[in-house]
Amino acid sequence: MEVSASCSYALLLFSIFLIFIYSFPSKQNHLFLAFEPPPASTHNTSHLSTEPLPSSSTRNTSHLSAESLPSASSSVPAGNNTIIPIKKRCRLERIEADLAQARAAIHEAIQKRSFKSDKDEIFIPRGSMYRNAYAFQQSHIEMVKRFKIWAYRDGERPLVHSGPLKHIYAIEGQFIDEIENGNSSFIAQHPDEAHAFFAPVSVQHIVEYVYRPITSYDRDRLVRTFKDYIMVVAHKYPYWNASNGADHFMLSCHDWAPGVSVDDPELYKNFVRVLCNANMSEGFQPERDATLPEFNISPLSLTRHWFSKPPQNRSILAFFSGGRHGDIREGLINHWVGKDNEIQVNEYLPKGKDYARLMGDSKYCLCPSGFEVASPRLVESFHSGCVPVIISSNYSLPFNDVLDWTKFSVNIPVEKIPEIKKILQGIPEYEYLKMQKRVTKLRRHFQLNRPPKPFDALHMVLHSIWLRRLNIRLQH
Ligand SMILES: *[C@@H]1O[C@H](CO)[C@@H](O)[C@H](O)[C@H]1NC(C)=O
Ligand SMILES: *[C@@H]1O[C@H](CO)[C@@H](O)[C@H](O)[C@H]1NC(C)=O
Ligand SMILES: *[C@@H]1O[C@H](CO)[C@@H](O)[C@H](O)[C@H]1NC(C)=O
Ligand SMILES: *[C@@H]1O[C@H](CO)[C@@H](O)[C@H](O)[C@H]1NC(C)=O
Ligand SMILES: *[C@@H]1O[C@H](CO)[C@@H](O)[C@H](O)[C@H]1NC(C)=O
Ligand SMILES: *[C@@H]1O[C@H](CO)[C@@H](O)[C@H](O)[C@H]1NC(C)=O
Ligand SMILES: *[C@@H]1O[C@H](CO)[C@@H](O)[C@H](O)[C@H]1NC(C)=O
Ligand SMILES: *[C@@H]1O[C@H](CO)[C@@H](O)[C@H](O)[C@H]1NC(C)=O
């Protein structure tokens, strides 16, 4: 592509594009109207080196500087700083043209109620549990075809480039690993071809390593370490400033992750945060941020053996097992433990009982919030063919932009915990059977595969990010 003299100064616009189609028709498009550069950092960034990493590292960041990049898009000579804004504009022009094609294809799919693909599609989403199955399918096709992410290479392990692969925060490390292992087709070969930029910092690893031994729950060090990283990349490369962070994202499953950006709302105003702890009372904005489903991954293997009885054979009306983590669980346990055979609420799993079997023998699985809003029980419900019962407040549900949760889950407000039995018994059998069937049909979206497969959990997470990128336009 040639450098065009008509390139003008980059402005940031918000277009109420796809989210309109999906789920937030009434929301204001206020997010990106004010366009101001982030304030300069006063923090000491030296420990997240801005310099090329030592040669013991396998990463070589020196080829990443904006000046020395091979020019993917133009014949602009390297080494002339005054040229960079032109490159930037033309990069955005090209990226935006690509996204415009994707939007057009999605619009067409919606109108024609069909899809267009260059490949055989292994899965065709259909059914009322999708807000718009045609839009979703085409959007997924366009994502697989086009979406490219650049993961910044600065910073060192373990805080950057690696995360937990097991237990409750596993999705954080699995995503980072997938993006970093070099096999993903979503990786840009060059930052100039990226639609989105990833800060591959692990909040869980910061908590694990920076806070070791943990003597303080003060989020201060986390906030500073994360901000240092953003400051490094924003100073070193042109990309953050070109969008004021709007095409940049972080991803974390740790409870503390929302705290990262509270300290500096101006800096992170547009920054996309992909979080398990999607608590709307703590600044999570569903139009800008995306919810990460929580997975409890066993140290032994990625997939656990689940168990699922046919719906008619399930003997337990509702099941829960877990600790007294937070007020909601406290209320649930206090009210229901040992009270009713049909509502099996356990503080600890009874001796000799198998968690997966109990889930697979229950019609409804209770998914209350714990110390934070997310629960791995949501994902586990899909694997057990158990209709999830969400007991939380201000939780933005995973993939809510694509999935209509009212069609396959029950929402019970926290204050109605004593009425759980009455509410569930009041759901007609045919209604339950419909929901149960949808739960089993949606299972693939909550399946974590390495390498990932189309429409699985990692693709759904990527799609959440893709959708948010489609929703903004970086004007040139
Ligand atoms: C930054 O941190 C490094 C090492 O932690 C220290 O040597 C240096 O003096 C600090 N600089 C400032 C400006 O605080
Ligand atoms: C890093 O890249 C620079 C410039 O491309 C090169 O001179 C240097 O040898 C590389 N270092 C390593 C460790 O690969
Ligand atoms: C960069 O390009 C401009 C305009 O072409 C020129 O005036 C300037 O001298 C160049 N600067 C360098 C450092 O090459
Ligand atoms: C990348 O993919 C190849 C072939 O599927 C596989 O053998 C290799 O282990 C993968 N690499 C990583 C780092 O996962
Ligand atoms: C981005 O903007 C900040 C604040 O204005 C500035 O300090 C930084 O140098 C800019 N980054 C680049 C790569 O120009
Ligand atoms: C959080 O939930 C409460 C109770 O459901 C509701 O009154 C409040 O408006 C919600 N706040 C946000 C920010 O969504
Ligand atoms: C389900 O129940 C039917 C009838 O009670 C029984 O014949 C069948 O074996 C049961 N299936 C399973 C998987 O338990
Ligand atoms: C969500 O955030 C609000 C406000 O900080 C807090 O009171 C509430 O406990 C949080 N929810 C959970 C489940 O942690």
From TrEMBL:
It holds the Pfam family Exostosin_GT47. InterPro entries: Exostosin, Exostosin_GT47. GO terms for molecular function: glycosyltransferase activity. The keyword Transmembrane helix applies. GO terms for cellular component: Golgi membrane. Keywords: Glycosyltransferase, Golgi apparatus, Membrane, Signal-anchor, Transferase, Transmembrane, Transmembrane helix. This is Exostosin GT47 domain-containing protein. The lineage of its organism: Eukaryota, Viridiplantae, Streptophyta, Embryophyta, Tracheophyta.
